[in-house]
Amino acid sequence: MDELERELRRVLRDDRWRLEPPTEAVERVRRGAMRRQRRRRAAAGGLSAFAIVAVASAVFATPLLTGGNGEQSAAKGEASSSAERLDSASPAPMESGKSAQPRRTAEPTVSGGPVPAGFRARSLTAVSTDTFWVLGTAPCDTPVCTSIVRTDDGGRTFRGLPAPRAPLASDRPTRAAIGDLRFASGDDGYAFGGALWTTHDGGRQWARGSLPGSVERVEAAGGTAWALVSVGDGQRLYRSPTSRDSWSRVRLPTTLGGETADLAVHGSGLVTVVGGSGDRSVSVVSTDGGRTFDTHDRPCDPALGSTVSATSGALWMFCATGTQGRPYVSTDDARSWNAVRGAPAGGWANSSVVGARSRTTAALASGTRIYTLTSGGATRPASNAADTGGTSFRFLGFTTPLVGYAVVGRTSTSSLWRTTDGGHTWGTVRF
Question: What is the pTM for the complete model shown?
């Protein structure tokens, strides 16, 4: 028996790899080793034979690193002193200190388990048309039941991933709960909605963030994450590199109050915060990545809610009013806003959510329907994936002008929709 055969037999016997090779496979290895022995007898020098064994051992060992036990590597992000990391698989978190199977491949994605039975969507985030994550919940014996699933094939298949040990928020954020999810890349993600949790290894481990107040919104673009935080009776803006947790406060030229602010970012330059400042309704905008900000008036009620969505060359906004809301679009970085004419019968519901597609087109989820609209006022109802059951939408967004997603209904009965034609038709995503 030569060294290569001896090493292969040792590896194949090792229970850590959990492989049960068939007898004929080992016999083929033995016959191959005998042939190599005959060739080596005809070769000169033992040094070259040692080199062959060493190289062959390395080649055979690499594909075997797909199982076994081992310590999980720490996340790249810097955790605060109160950071808490989870290594469990979705949906139910493990007890502190337990570790999941380590990743043993060179792929940048994180392997996961099955999708929890009865999974319901709450929020969605995408980094491409194929790769997106969904935050939600599933029935479990011991709460917390918060779950995360991921797809890399546009929603055809999903796998369960670890989730932060935090309850899923209701419509109103609390300091302990999360309700939304954002990923800036395949590694760097944020779960928020009161509390803040971050990951820098694709969701394998989550760390509790340390921002003050209630984290209302997190958006990321151009290598920077931005967080809108409610502290006391005002709103603050924080920023951090997406590759690590290093948050710093951004001083805005205007004080934003209340709970009606919203945040949108695009590329490496545009950062927009909309909200109320005393009796004014304002847009606080940076076009240089947060180095400087300008304040502009906007046509919304400062006491009522609004949503804003950014795309290349345009900001789309929806403003609630006392009775019905109205969409607006800006193509000059919020210096001015143009009302979008046209509306369905009965007008736009105050709870409507806008999703920007391009400078001239957007989608609007209003009541129980989704509509496509243009800056010129053309409005067209989309073909719904299914009946919403009388409930409204809580999320609408686009990865490209054609591919978008919507979450409809309360979390306990919610469904996820997807479009690939710019919002004209929608199909239900099955988990």
Answer: 0.73
3-state SS, residue 236? strand
Q: Out of 2.30.110.10, 2.130.10.10, 3.20.20.60, 3.30.750.80, select the CATH number for domain 252-431.
A: 2.130.10.10
What order of strands is seen across the sheet that includes strand 369-374? 353-356, 361-366, 369-374, 379-381
Q: What is the mean pLDDT of each run of 10 residues along the chain (431 residues)?
A: 46 37 43 50 39 30 27 30 33 35 36 90 96 96 93 97 92 82 98 97 95 96 97 94 98 88 96 95 97 97 92 97 91 97 91 96 94 94 79 92 92 88 95 95
Number of H helices, E strands in the chain: 3, 28
Q: Classify residue 19 by burial, with Cβ atoms within 10 Å: 0-12, 13-18, 19+.
A: middle
Phi, psi of 124 (to 5 degrees): -140, 150
At 386, which amino acid appears?
A: A
For the chain, the domains span 3-64, 83-100+107-212, 252-431
Core vs surface per residue 59-96: b (16+ CB within 10 A) or e: eeeeebeeeeeeeeeebebebeeebebbbbbbbbbeee
